[in-house]
Amino acid sequence: MKCQFCNQELPDGAKFCHKCYRQIVCLGCGELLIENSSICVYCGKEIKMPSVQPNVNHIKYSETENGKSFEASFSDETAGNVVDVFARFLPIKRNSDIQQNVLQLSQAEDAKAEEIEDVVSDNNGVNLHKNENANMINSIFAVKGDSIMLYEKRLKAKSKSDYQARICLLYLLYNKAIAKKEVNREDLNGIMEKEKLYDGNFRAWISQHKSFFIINNDVIELSPEGEEKAQVILSEVFDKSIENSWSPNSGNQPSTTKLSSKRKNPQVVKDLDLFPKGKESLDDFMKHHKYGKSSPRIILLFVYYLKQVLGSENVNQDHIFTCFRRMKLAIPNNLYACISDTIRKNGWIENISNLNVTTQGINEVEQKMETK
Hints:
Blueprint: E1 56-62, E2 69-75, H1 79-86, H2 92-121, H3 132-138, E3 141-144, E4 147-150, H4 160-177, E5 183-184, H5 185-194, H6 200-208, E6 213-216, E7 219-222, H7 224-237, H8 248-251, H9 256-262, H10 282-287, H11 295-309, H12 317-327, H13 335-346, E8 349-350, E9 356-357, H14 359-368
Antiparallel strand pairs: 1-2, 3-4, 5-7, 6-7, 8-9
């Protein structure tokens, strides 16, 4: 292995560098440290740099008749070079004595290095693959043949888009935990496809959160910011006080025929204020967009307005029905089925029990949809 700060070759398992005197791994969890960070980004342990400083030696030589003199201050690392220069001033027979003194200095320095190694090795023998975080991330994914599969699907996500983000960040963190710092984009896309979550919304999320990643051609890995975010998500997954709000099973709605039979007649939400003070009314909002007779686009605009403009916490088919009535637009014969199709086919909205606009839907309204 090499020191990540000065590139010095080190023995496997080293925790300090004998060349730059830097601590290279966390003494708490065993993860590699990031340059200029005062804490470990994986476990939060404060980084205490060793106080070891290079020894400074001083040599002075003088000779009376010819006025020869030599004076030098040097570290143990440069002692060999100093000997070569100093030998030019002295008889050859004395050179061996100087070399012997330098050898003793070097041996003393090696002893200090061994002392540091002993102190570190007493730190419970922390190993990257055996620390708590690695065990946690290993319980989320499973290796089957040559592929990695999502094993634990309860990721404490709040929505489909949040679920996609969590799988992405945790998958990259998993690869780092098994000493594979970067992965091919194809591998990342592959695990999303296995979970039926690879879509335009996921690609848009990656594009909008570039600070989480280091992307080089076809490979992708977590940036320090991305690692911190992934660690937060990892801790949330195993936090028993946090409920699992969304999962693939809760996101896959039963057939529209069965559900629509329970709600054949959506109701008007009487307390829904579509003319709020200090905010744009629904009428004015709809006037700014060209949506024609497309029910999916109309539904998208209604959900966007209720969530992004009004800031409504809960939006369901009754709210959409109320908006249709207020705008005096033709209501789909099966409104619930139309909303479900917009979710499934267009990907603009999600979670039919509490509708929300996806990133893809936001881009459709703000970037692609024509305005008047």
